[in-house]
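To illustrate the input format used throughout this study, we show a single complete record. The first block contains the structure-token representation of the backbone; no residue identities are included at this stage. The design step must infer an amino acid for every position from geometry alone.
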């Protein structure tokens, strides 16, 4: 599949393509050295029986559950906060706030400093349903957030590719009913599918190469296909950023911020917050196991038959 990609020294082309299509790919944005050090830490932790993380696709704490091929089944939510696994969290942070990424964010937003509000790690594709990020998180005013997907290996077409619907950022935006809770999530999911069916948007998948980074608009409809080949992983990171002078759309007040390894990128939460979050993750894991409590909201495609 032919994909349009740009290099960091093509700023005007990058900005124009993003504005026109709602996404853009920057080639070789992340170095192989950073990626390899991160994956080395992941390989150490995936077989650690004491390692617990928050799952992004099921929204509950879990231990690594490996596929027969040795890939972690669940995605990690905010791995940069895993302070009880300090080497892993540091390697994640090094990749997420890479200098090239910071430059692209500034190019697309026109702002010099940004806040990273959420991040994720995928070892295997979880097959994410179609959605606009705006429903879950955005900047205030809306439409100013920028998301990024980092390919940590050469992504195979049948590995559960990330996809976007180009140009969908210019169409209808579906918001939460009450502006805060996810109580209407099922209604939202069906509205997104109806929106797609009523338009001429086309799906475009992204079998990116190691080191490529895809940036997209919060109104752009996107998701990920189910993994069709159990021998193929889809090692990748995602993160969401907004200009530092703004605040998150759904926040009652501006969050506390802390510095990252990059002086141009801040992270939400106080300096102690990641440590508190790590302890709470383990406590919730134990409590859920005792109560037999499962996920409250699932983003996996396999849980919604008509979305497959």
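Output of the design step:
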């Amino acid at each position: 599949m032919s994909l349009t990609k740009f290099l960091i020294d093509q700023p005007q082309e990058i900005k124009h393509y993003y504005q026109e299509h709602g996404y853009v790919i920057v080639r070789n944005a992340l170095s192989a050295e950073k990626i390899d050090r991160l994956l080395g830490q992941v390989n150490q932790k995936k077989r650690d029986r004491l390692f617990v993380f928050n799952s992004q696709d099921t929204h509950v704490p879990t231990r690594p559950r490996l596929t027969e091929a040795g890939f972690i089944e669940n995605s990690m939510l905010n791995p940069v906060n895993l302070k009880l696994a300090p080497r892993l969290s540091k390697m994640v942070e090094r990749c997420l706030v890479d200098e090239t990424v910071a430059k692209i964010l500034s190019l697309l937003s026109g702002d010099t400093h940004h806040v990273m509000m959420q991040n994720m790690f995928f070892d295997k594709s979880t097959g994410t349903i179609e959605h606009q990020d705006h429903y879950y998180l955005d900047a205030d005013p809306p439409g100013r957030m920028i998301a990024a997907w980092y390919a940590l290996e050469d992504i195979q077409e049948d590995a559960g590719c990330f996809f976007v619907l180009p140009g969908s950022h210019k169409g209808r935006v579906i918001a939460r009913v009450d502006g805060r809770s996810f109580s209407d999530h099922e209604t939202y999911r069906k509205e997104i599918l109806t929106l797609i069916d009523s338009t001429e948007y086309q799906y475009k998948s992204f079998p990116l190469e190691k080191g490529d980074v895809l940036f997209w608009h919060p109104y752009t409809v996107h998701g990920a296909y189910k993994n069709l080949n159990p021998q193929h992983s889809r090692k990748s990171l995602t993160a969401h950023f907004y200009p530092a002078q703004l605040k998150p759309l759904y926040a009652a007040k501006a969050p506390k911020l802390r510095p990252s390894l990059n002086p141009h990128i801040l992270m939400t939460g106080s300096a102690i917050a990641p440590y508190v979050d790590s302890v709470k993750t383990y406590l919730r894991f134990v409590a859920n196991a005792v109560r037999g409590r499962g996920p409250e909201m699932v983003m996996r495609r396999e849980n919604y038959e008509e979305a497959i």
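Structural context for interpreting the output: The first helix runs from residue 11 to 21. The domain at 11-298 is CATH 2.60.120.620 (Jelly Rolls).
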